[in-house]
Batch of 4 targets.
Target 1
Amino acid sequence: NNLVILISGTGSNMAAIVRAAERERWAERLGARVAAVISNRPGAKGLDFARERGMATAVVDHKAFDGREAFDAALMRAIDVHQPALVVLAGFMRILTPGFVAHYAGRLVNIHPSLLPAFPGLHTHQRALDEGCKLAGATVHRVTAELDHGEILAQAAVPVLPGDTADTLAARVLTQEHLIYPQAVAYLLSKK
Ligand code: GRF
């Protein structure tokens, strides 16, 4: 069971999954391994983490393609080399075409930094603060053609504290993401 993880930046969620796979011995227990880390941004810091661990990496730079379909087709080619049982979006900041989503139907997951269905889309923490929410959090969900609306697989909630900024709240939520994402991925792999 190969996993391919897609990132766009820091890749802290990817790193949490890679560490969990090693610590919990997914290869032996689940017959699963993180086969590759792929980014749409050449400078994504997460690529350094993957390279340092000798992992396969690839860059499919969305700026190098004329249109969303052309980019997604190139991304699919880079992913399918690894014949993944699961494609994990981890801080991947691209909206994927329906063709891409259909190609990976049933094996595409994402983590979103809000308690969906609240706050789909961007700037979730600032929006939660602006609304005076007392709880915030993250959601692991299956990816469908409708942005941030697939079946919810896992969630974690954190308190919004007095004086919180989007950054302090984001950091508190991120800590929980690093717990629930590896757990949700391991659960999905155990069902494969
Ligand atoms: C963070 O905002 C996180 O909440 C969301 O994607 C962004 C980057 O995450 N899931 P990562 O550190 O690149 O995994």
Target 2
Amino acid sequence: MSSSHDWFTHDRFGLFIHFGLYSTLARHEWVMTREQTAPEDYERNARFFDPDLFDAREVARAAKAAGMRYAVLTAKHHEGFAMFDSKLTDYTSMQTFGRDIVREFVDACREEGLRVGLYFSLIDWHHPEFTIDYHHPLRDREDAVELNASRDMVMYREYLHGQVRELLTNYGTIDYLFYDFTYDEPRDGWEGKGPADWDAEALLRLTRELQPGILVNDRLGIPADLVTPEQYQPDETMTRDGVEVTWEACQTLNGSWGYDRDNVDFKTPDLLVRMLVDSVAKGGNMLLNIGPDGRGAVTPRDLATLAAIGDWMDRNERSVIGAGPAAEVAPFGTRFTRRGDRLYLHLFHWPFGHVHLPDLAGRVGFARFLHDGSEIRTSAIDPDQQAWNTTPGGQPAGTLTLHLPVTRPDV
Ligand code: FHN
């Protein structure tokens, strides 16, 4: 990864925001294809879209308080509705309710000191010349493949590249472009479509020409700056051809990217903190998503979850921000992260008995966990002594994190 991207592997933790016309339907961002709504019917929802409660500053402040360092907003998702002032279509937030949501977002991020990321969909179910892929409302049409063959992808490619040019020209420095997504293999109705049709190589060149320092993900369908596991935690540090790669796991708060009123699959702050720690321990980042509702409000539950993560970060952020994998092998049920000369032992559950740290013998003492779980002490001495002696109730959500010096203190 180029040095201009060092910020990314330092910052480790970002906010993903899925916000679009789909938010008004409160049923998931794929609602258009899940309900097989034809574009001319789906676009009528825009008449009701007026997110009076969307406050980009509130979102940016919540991200910052959660310990996040960057944020990525869906500028345009697969539905094709642009949340920015595109001159290439009137299917935009500006034309619909007079607001340039991307502009509000980038301004708010900068005011709060967050790096700016934009998500941009390669798929566009609204554009008349886009391939009818197997998720398209016409997918059950026998002639879908023939229709695809008749598609003029040149017109679509020019539209796609044109909107990328608008986003990377009109909104100042963009730190991260999250393209999304392509299929690796031809699918029914998708034959021969994909990177070759939207000319992924040319799009990557255009991206870097317009924003030379920008970070680009791997979802153009060609290699770029980072790998993006979709909603899973890799088993270990990620490599490509034996070389460690920069990676970022994107995760939902509740099983849905876009606001879904029926969703009940909520992850707890403890689990989310462990996922963040797990990512950093394996050399990666975590991009955690919220989905504002149709009026643009972030749900109280999502805000509360971000705030609980922030409680843990207030005390432990140096064990993840600016941190990375450790050479030491962590005992089962724990993770090590390392930052400079300091090692962080993250206990993913309250242990019973001793946690033996053979890799640290002679460098720090061992952590002794009284059987009744009443207290933890460790023999090493460190200015952060108070961070070690804690009780189950005393530890905010997430992990029990011991801040251990990796060399014996001069005592
Ligand atoms: O289809 C999208 C999905 O809606 C969501 O935006 C995720 C986020 O990583 N990306 C695609 C599925 O991988």
Target 3
Amino acid sequence: GAAAAAAGDLSGRRVVVTAGPTVEDLDPVRYLGNRSSGKMGFAVAERAAARGAEVTLITGPVNLGTPRGVARVDVRSALSMRDALARALGDDLSGADALVMTAAVADYRPAVVSPVKLKKMQGAGGDETSLRLVKNPDLLAEIGAKRATKKPVLVGFAVETGTPEQLVDYARGKLLQKKCDLVVANEARVAFAGDDNRATIVSAAGAEGLGTMSKVELADRILDRVRDVWADIVA
Ligand code: CTP
Ligand code: CA
């Protein structure tokens, strides 16, 4: 909690955070995006830096200022976020002690990106159209599959609609499938709404439901849990 968020308690640690949406271009004027504001990831980056960590923040297009002391890398698509992650983590993943993956990474991208603006089709045949999409790589699952130790500690996020029970079930599935240490689950309606969030933190040990709090406060709670994982590694 707040008392545990002591100044400097994360010093000497390297934390990589991803934030915001990814944006998948269709042509020079159109893209597929999502409702992620970036606020959760920016809050994690801000708090990690304030608590002494060396922080790299890899973000999709958002309207937010860079938190003090944070190295920011701006990206656009899932594939460009993958490149930035590879640079930040290194081939052997030794570049970070923790990766907090708050980004809402697009699951699919247009199969073809047109270099020129697409024109609408004329005549009766143009009344309907469809878009061919191809799957993006799962950035977190790739890193989870590659990771041999707890370096970096991996934190995933899961934004869902549906019942609280489904929320935790999906989060457990993602924890196992992506080989994460923690998955922070929240409801889309709350998560994308503004400055507050209500989350459940799921780990192999169980699910901890948290009350509604600011994204900054939730960031501290998540970082407390990451610090606990680090402490367990030493013990
Ligand atoms: N994620 C990722 N790469 C993707 C999709 C998701 O790294 N291509 C990460 C997100 O950053 C998040 C976690 O995986 O930390 C869960 O994302 P989510 O969209 O909830 O899970 P998916 O596995 O994509 O499942 P679905 O969207 O079908 O619920
Ligand atoms: Ca997804």
Target 4
Amino acid sequence: MAVIDLIMQRMKNRSKGYFVLIDPEKRSVDLNRMVQNINRTYVDAILVGGSNKNISGFHSFIVRLKKMTDVPIVLFPGSHSQISKEADAILLLSLLNSRSLKHVIGEHIDAAETIVRSGIEVIPTAYIVMDKTGKTSVSRAAEVLKLKSEDDVKKYIYASSLMSYSVVYLEAGSGASQSISPSAVKIARRILDKPIIVGGGIKTPDKAKSLLKAGADIIVTGNAIEKNPDLILDFGALVKRF
Ligand code: 1GP
């Protein structure tokens, strides 16, 4: 099944989805244990990407991961060099509230030919970073404009609804001290008839629950499960029974 069909199913059936993010550069992570847990529980896709522009061995990491699991592997690229034809799909992220043109469209232009030739499924994604601290690596690298009020949030959500993005990803930033607020997710849910993915700073199943309740279709965890891969089982169980 195409990954976008799986995501659409989650939204239409009002079931919920769970993505796990793996950064190939974090060598200290217990990858075997993470993947064992992913295979044992309810994970819809593994996102792979990192904030470092040039990750050495990116393609061979995807090849290795593919041998360990049947869960779809979806690129979540931090730059145009993080592309591999072995992946099942790519979230082609346009960071809408960036003042750095390359994060809105430039990296995409550099990656476009490789993506087309790879034949992998492309999921155009409106990527909105809601990081009030401005301290996460994405905020710094991409000159992210802070969304200070609900009206600011609404503007970006309305814009995402008008443009031809298949999904909307609301991001607090990887490693954020706090996730985005359930009230921001509620605003998005009221406006959007598109799947909503929420990630960044989700450290506990309770937090995930509040975001799913507010209207997120899919939650993403990275840092928390790198530190404790067994949390994958807790998040998976929560999302499955939601
Ligand atoms: C980052 O949304 C993902 O893009 C995951 O964030 O690492 O904070 O879980 P965390």
